[in-house]
Structures are given as structure tokens and as C-alpha cells.
Amino acid sequence: MLKAGKILFLKYDDIAIGYKMYKIFLSLFFSALLSAELINGVSVVVKGEPITLYDIKEEMRISDVDANIATDILIRKKLEAAEIDERQISVTSAEVYDDIKKIAAANKMSIDEFYEVVRNSNGLNSAEFKEKTKEKILSQKLYSAIAYSSIDIPGDEELKEYFELHKEEFLRPSAFNVSIYSSQNRTALEKKITIPMFHSDEVQIDEQVLEYNKISAQLSRLLENTKINSFTPVVADPNGSFVSFFLKGIEAPSSVNFESVKNEIINLIMTQKREQVLSDYFARLRNSADIKIIREP
């Protein structure tokens, strides 16, 4: 009898513990649901398309802006997407590739070299950069569809005024003071730049001063985006070996010639004017669009 009673007691205790665990599980489950609702809860609805609190938090993180600006950015994106859809505007893969190919050619690079520079400069892989390029082309097509008249190319007077006001933005270093680490063995090279005390006869080191006007656009961009006293990523050398540049210093920027940056200034001004037209258009569209604020971010 004692044995049977003991067994009955243990079974009852197990049931009690199980019931407590079940209550804890339910509490955690509903807490998780509540958290998910807060994260994914709809904040704004634009033409029937929702913008969630999670979307806003992600935009805040990516663009490094506050909640209000992030919300404005997302509303603009929703309006653009709706407008693109209504006007049946599209961009093909061929158009994206052609645009990237033109930019690479203008910088005297192959497509692969250009992707590598983009990755080292902006941290974007080829797929992400293609998506950014697609967004750019869509924006250009959308501008062409809604603009009432074409924008005139700025004249020399406007270009020179812009140049004088933003001259510092066009200054380039006169030279880079570097140590060039090279090897036929990529693994040995990567180990050397990671562990400075590591020694390998397969890695050669050459001290040089690289003049800005005498190196490729690819290399200059790579060095300009490298912090002093640090290595560039390992890149392939035209001779078949691998190299990494240790940037020891940058010689003072040289003065820049207006003619050398004239085309760059034209592109900047035209881009700004197109964006102003688009901003004005979507500001008017926002005032008349069906936008519902469900909750403040």
C-alpha cells in the first residue's frame, strides 16, 4: 500500500510540475506574440500597402535617420512603387548590365574589376549593386514619364559657380605612400597581412610613393577608401599574382582643374535637378494619396 501511495504521490507531483511548466510556456508564447505584434504591427498604410514598425526600424538602421524621416522615406518609396506600377515602367537585366558596363568602361575597368572596387568601397556585392542600379534606372524612367519638360544642360557659368562653391569635394590626393605586399600564394599573403610577425619567403614587400595621376582609377579609389596604417583587401594583379597595399600616408591634395571635373559636375547638377522635380511631384501626390497613419512610430 505504501508503495502504491508513493507512486500515486509522484504522479500527482509530476502533473503539478507539468501544469506549472505549461503556464510558463503559455506566458512566454503570448509574450512572443505580443512582441511580434509590436515589431510587425502596421504603422502606415499607403494606397493599401502597409508599412510596419519593423520596416521603419530597419530604415532607421540602414539610413541612420530618426523615425519620422525613415517613415517619410518609406512613404515616398511606396508612392514611387505605385506610380511605377500604374505607368507599367520596367527595367530589364540587359539594361542594368549595359549601365554597369558603361560605368566600368568610363573608369577603364573590366566588369569584375568594377564589382571589386564597389565591394571594397561600399560593401555591396554584385547582386546588391545590380539592385541599386535597377532602382536608379527606374527612377530615371519615372522622371522621364512625369516631367513636363526636359532639363537643360547647365552652362559654363552655372558649372563654374558650382565648382567654386564645392571645390573641396573635387580635391584629390597628390600621392599615396604605400608598402606593396605581393605573392603568387594568396593564402601566404593573407596570413602575412593578418599576422605581421609571420614570415614567408613567398611574400615580397616593396616601398613606393604612388602618384595619383599615374595610377589607375581602380587603384586610386581603393586607396582613397582605405584608412591610414591599414591594408587594402587582397586584389589580383595583372601579372597573375596577388597584392595588398599598406597605406602609410597620403600627400596633401593637389589643386583641381575645372575642365577635368566638368562632366562630373554636369552629372551632379542634372541629378539634383531631376531629384527636385521628383520630390515636388511626390510631395503633391502625397497630399492627395490615400495614406492612413495607424500608429506613430
List the helices and strands and how they pair.
Elements (H helix, E strand, L loop, with lengths): L1 H39 L1 E5 L2 E4 H11 L3 H20 L6 H14 L4 H12 L3 H21 L9 H10 L6 E12 L2 H9 L9 E8 L5 H8 L5 E2 L3 E2 L5 E13 L3 H31 L2 E3 L4
Antiparallel strand pairs: 1-2, 1-8, 3-4, 3-7, 5-7, 6-7
Question: Can you give a write-up of this model?
Answer:
The protein is α+β, with helices and mostly antiparallel strands. The protein has a domain at 172-254: Chitinase A, domain 3 (Roll). Helices cover 59% and strands 16% of the residues. The protein contains ten helices and eight strands. It has helices spanning 2-40, 53-63, 67-86, 93-106, 111-122, 126-146, 156-165, 186-194, 217-224, 258-288; strands spanning 42-46, 49-52, 172-183, 204-211, 230-231, 235-236, 242-254, 291-293. Strands 3, 4, 5, 6 and 7 form a five-stranded antiparallel β-sheet that branches. It has a three-stranded antiparallel β-sheet with strand order 2-1-8. A hairpin with a 5-residue loop joins strand 6 and strand 7. Mean pLDDT is 80; it is low at 1-17 and 22-39.
Structure summary:
It is built from ten helices and eight strands. By secondary structure, the protein is an alpha+beta fold.
Write a concise keyword list for the protein shown above.
297 residues; alpha+beta; Chitinase A, domain 3; 5-stranded antiparallel beta sheet; 3-stranded antiparallel beta sheet; 10 helices; 8 strands; 59% helix; 16% strand
